[in-house]
Automatic annotation (TrEMBL):
Identification of the protein by name: pyruvate dehydrogenase (acetyl-transferring)
Organism: Ranatra chinensis
Domain Dehydrogenase E1 component, residue spans: 1-276
Keyword annotations: Oxidoreductase, Thiamine pyrophosphate, Transit peptide
Keyword Cell inner membrane in annotation: no
The organism's taxonomic lineage, starting at the top: Eukaryota, Metazoa, Ecdysozoa, Arthropoda, Hexapoda
């Protein structure tokens, strides 16, 4: 969770200095949701999520370097710089999707694929409170129930969809019940609500969900009650629709990292001093370090040259001639100019 928090701080800074272009949605505050689920997952269980995908990408095995290279549009990124911040992929991690709620039917398809291949695995399909009332979500629930697919639908309720609070957008803010009389009771789906700021509760809920989904009973819906500290995206200061006191209060009383630290210390598993030391070497996510590394990558790509290599026009996307022209049109012009015709 610490690494994820630092990763997002780094991404925030990279965005501010225009190294991350386009969209950038941070996950800070919601770490326990991802870490709890990942702790319960078994080999070849899968995940699909929305555009708030950096932390999940890292958890699913994208190295910090590949990840930061991706979000800054570098060829050394996990998707060769073509996916950017919102579209991260790796084995068993099916993205990163920018269209709200699109990952719900897509994830259901992932599970259908697993079933057809005879795999005994689940897919965690994460979506926000802002997607929870979409028709496509309920269509996916219906198909998953009809075919008894081991889909685990997870609504990460961080109480806001962009600048709109759950109360303003939803007739029923208990998303786990999924408008029960219409859908869950009718289907009948199993569903429950979990404290998404408590990593252990999330892990236990996820374990239960896996067992349930693989028992042949079909899908399950979890609602994780959580909170995002940043605005919806980097272009939203996140202050016009909620008070700074509200954010401060959550940080002070429900922060997932602080809560888990207290659990560890009170169980005598570590002292507060021990917890100050970074556990993993790759928690070094300071911006300068990554800037240097990324610029080195870029240099290597250029100096290594692409002569003799068949490269599609799209590949220039990630390796434009200068760090300021990674996206947009200038790279294409320059890329084509530097490439002999017919090569
Ligand atoms: C189909 C569609 N409609 C609208 C948008 C614009 N949009 C992007 S995020 C968002 C709100 C989603 O909120 P939520 O599902 O709660 O996710 P969170 O951002 O809180 O993680 C909207 C309306 C979009 N990307 N796709
Ligand atoms: Mg939300």
């Amino acid at each position: 969770m610490n690494t994820m928090r630092q990763l997002e701080n780094t991404c925030g800074k990279l965005y501010m200095q225009k190294d991350i272009k386009g969209f950038c949605h941070l996950y800070s505050g919601q770490e326990a949701c991802a870490v709890g689920i990942k702790a319960a997952m078994r080999t070849d269980d899968a995940v699909i999520t929305s555009y708030r995908a950096h932390a999940w990408g890292y958890l699913m095995g994208i190295s910090l370097h590949n990840l930061l290279a991706e979000v800054t549009g570098r060829k050394t990124g996990c998707c060769r710089g073509k996916g950017g911040s919102m579209h991260l992929f790796t084995k068993n991690f099916y993205g990163g999707h920018g269209i709200v709620g699109a990952q719900v039917p897509l994830g259901t398809g992932v599970v259908l694929g697993m079933m057809c291949k005879g795999q005994s695995n689940v897919c965690f399909i994460l979506y926000g409170d802002g997607a929870a009332n979409q028709g496509q979500a309920f269509e996916a629930f219906n198909m998953a129930m009809l075919w008894k697919l081991p889909s685990i639908f997870v609504c990460e309720n961080n109480t806001y969809g962009m600048g709109t609070s759950a109360e303003r957008s939803s007739a029923d803010t208990d998303y786990y019940i999924c408008n029960d009389t219409i859908f869950c009771v009718f289907l009948p789906l199993l569903f429950f609500q979990v404290d998404g700021m408590d990593v252990v509760s999330v892990r236990e809920a996820a374990r239960f969900a896996i067992e349930h989904a693989l028992s042949g009973a079909g899908p399950i819906v979890l609602e994780l009650l959580t909170y995002r500290y940043s605005g919806h995206s980097m272009s939203d200061p996140g202050e016009s629709y909620r008070s700074s006191e509200e954010v401060k209060d959550v940080r002070a009383t429900r922060d997932p990292i602080v809560l888990f630290r207290e659990v560890i210390v009170s169980a005598n598993l570590a002292t507060p001093e021990e917890l100050k030391v970074p556990v993993y070497a790759d928690t070094i996510t300071n911006v300068q370090f990554y800037n240097t590394k990324l610029r080195c990558d870029l240099f290597l790509i250029h100096s290594g040259g692409l002569d003799g290599v068949v490269v599609s026009i799209c590949d220039y996307h990630a390796e434009g001639p200068g760090s300021n022209s990674l996206r947009g049109h200038s790279w294409l012009k320059a890329g084509l100019a530097s490439r002999p015709l017919g090569a």
